[in-house]
Amino acid sequence: MERASRPLSTARMHRIALCMLPVVLVMSCKENSPLILALDPPVALPGEVVTIWGSNFGSDRNNSFITLDGNQPVSSAYLAWTDTHIQLRVPEIGRSGLVFVYKDGKKSNPSLFAYADTIPQRTVEETVFIGPQIRSLEPSSGAVGSTITIAGSNFGTLREDGMVLFPSGMDPLGQEQLEASSSGAEYILWSDREIQVQVPDGAVSGNLTVRTAWGESEPVRFTLDRSLGDKVFTKRQSYLITYTVDIQVRSARAPNALYLWVPVPATAASQPQSELVSRDSIPFVENYQGTSLFRFNDLLSSDTKRINFSYLITTYAVQTALKVSAIPQNTALSLPLSSPTALIPSQDKRISALAQSLVGQESNPYLKAQNLYQWLIKTIAMPLPARNRTVFEALDEQKTEAYSASLLFCALARSTGIQAIPLTGVLIDKNRAVFVHHWAEFWIDGFGWIPVDPALGAGAAPEYFELPEDTAAYYFGNIDSQRIIFSRGELNHTALDPRGRRTKQAHEYALQNYWEEATGDLEAYSSFWSDIQIVGIYNE
């Protein structure tokens, strides 16, 4: 049963006031005990708002409280407390019973409240559905990054494999959906009757559903706030890729273990689908911080191991059209991606001073990022090919490449208060050749992630890679679909054994600190990580 909370009508309030008058006259000689006159509504579901009308409740709650079937609601359930009415969000106690108001040790008269879902209903050929059910969406519209609350039932007490599916900007017909966490959005709360989730990058207006192991809910309408502009997804591409890791053991005896952190394709607004087609080994941990973690125990001399992956990946070109003057001047930093790291030293005085000189008095985060990008592509040479430099080597030598350009952009952006992350993956040219590549994204509150590719913006592309006409303008705010993302941000793994010997594959197709760790008596081995191979390309 669904019942919407509603305010009392003026006529109804007058009737309550008239009924209240003789009672007040009788009670005036007493010591102002709280008096309940009415519950509105007297029947409701958990999460709905009930108003308790009466008198002598006190102007604020202080130490006063109510009980429902002998249970006290938590403090956050009280929405308003005045001398004549109390507003309360119905707690998930689930048992109908008497309501009392307590003030200064005095107890009110009782009033009966009933949970709507405990009242028997006559059903005629009714189909029982135990899957998730959405009752309301509050608010029913929002911008990217904002939080919405989904009220209903049968969501599950833990999220586990549950997900909120938003309408996707990748599908103009509205048939595809985007999982909330696929582009960095977070689940704030997940309970059996309420979900709080952020609107993901790439969402549009359309049908929203909740999916769990028990099924998928009926859709409800969600409207995307587009007041800051639009993001358009075009030129859909599908890539079938393979890659392998080969291990040859030279000298080993038990006990020992070899761990491999193998990157898997990331999910993002521009890369919403990544389907595992085949794999010849089962990982120790399926999804370990953006990788598949493999473990081989007690390897012996001359042992060989191979891990082979095959994925089908869907990518989109992205075009952004922002109303720059409408962008908030100070971002709310709703995502924790502005902190300095070893690779992105945004707190360094040299970086901060340079960034400040480049943005000057500009306060618009989009225009600040544009200033940094323009300086990068015009000031620092980007030879191709080139060795990978650190941020400081790039500044000292006035030379950079895709790797250090992406990190330098992020460092400069973060030092000015802009959230920015490096992206690492591969480019695919028209001959299906694959090249490791690095670029970046920065965040605008209320709009989402905006792509930036300083290297391609400067024209530093592989020979047979198809570039747009105006690369400098295109690669600030737009991105092509001729790429695959393996890491969004840094993948920093923790050592699994304090005595383990760890290996770094510097500047490969994912930005992660560790790729291998050998423990115990694994004395010598060799590893070969293949390049990404393109098996098929499907234009749609």
What does this structure look like?
- The chain is mainly beta and 540 residues long.
- The protein has four domains: 10-118, Immunoglobulins (Immunoglobulin-like, Sandwich), CATH 2.60.40; 133-225, Immunoglobulins (Immunoglobulin-like, Sandwich); 234-316 and 488-539, no CATH class; 317-487, C8orf32 fold (Roll).
- The protein contains seven helices and 32 strands.
- Strands 20, 21, 22, 23, 24, 28, 30, 31 and 32 form a nine-stranded antiparallel β-sheet that branches. Strands 11, 13, 14, 17, 18 and 19 form a six-stranded mixed β-sheet that branches. Strands 2, 4, 7, 8 and 9 form a five-stranded mixed β-sheet that branches.
- Helix 2 (349-359) packs across helix 5.
- It is globular.
Tell me the layout of helices and strands.
Layout: H1 10-27, E1 35-40, E2 43-44, E3 49-55, E4 65-68, E5 78-81, E6 85-89, E7 97-103, E8 106-107, E9 111-115, E10 133-138, E11 141-142, E12 147-153, E13 163-167, E14 177-179, E15 187-190, E16 194-198, E17 206-212, E18 215-216, E19 220-224, E20 229-263, E21 273-279, E22 285-288, E23 291-297, E24 304-322, H2 349-359, H3 365-379, H4 391-397, H5 402-415, E25 420-428, E26 434-444, E27 448-452, H6 454-457, H7 471-474, E28 478-479, E29 483-488, E30 501-503, E31 516-529, E32 533-539
Parallel strand pairs: 2-9, 11-19
Antiparallel strand pairs: 1-3, 3-6, 4-7, 5-6, 7-8, 7-9, 10-12, 12-16, 13-14, 13-17, 15-16, 17-18, 17-19, 20-23, 20-24, 20-31, 20-32, 21-24, 22-23, 24-28, 25-26, 25-29, 26-27, 30-31
